[in-house]
Design a protein that fits this description.
Shape: rod-shaped
Oligomer: single chain
Strand order of the largest sheet: 1-2
Strand content: 5-15%
Number of domains: 1
Number of strands: 2
Radius of gyration: 22 Å
Largest sheet: 2 strands, antiparallel
């Protein structure tokens, strides 16, 4: 573990000394999407230690952004693979719209289920 030369300063509030702790401002303004928020909720409820560690180290937003980006990439890749395997056009071709929507929704749900188990809820 790295040793830091930082000194913690304190201020008094009543009878207590309170540490002057301030998280550094995140210079990267990451936009977090659906999968990032799902990961955040999972960490808060089931991985409190990791959540706290990432928060204290100011790495939580980056972790959520990277998770969201990776999950989106995997979902898109799995959808392409499944549509190719099942011989379904990724774009509506003008025949039987309801059937095509059902098949594409089924593929998307399967792709997301895989990503949830591999990336989000682990």
């Amino acid at each position: 573990m790295e040793k830091s030369n930082l000194k913690i300063t304190y201020h008094q509030e009543g009878d207590y000394l309170i540490p002057d702790l301030v998280l550094p401002k995140d210079t990267n303004n990451h936009q977090i999407g659906k999968y990032g928020y799902l990961r955040l909720e999972f960490l808060k409820k089931h991985k409190r230690g990791l959540y706290t560690q990432l928060l204290i180290q100011n790495k939580l937003n980056k972790h959520l952004f990277e998770t969201d980006k990776e999950a989106n990439f995997r979902v898109d890749k799995i959808i392409k693979e499944l549509t190719k395997k099942e011989n379904i056009n990724t774009y509506f071709d003008g025949n039987d719209a309801l059937s095509w929507v059902q098949k594409m929704n089924n593929i998307k749900n399967r792709a997301e289920e895989i990503v949830f188990n591999e990336i989000i809820y682990c």
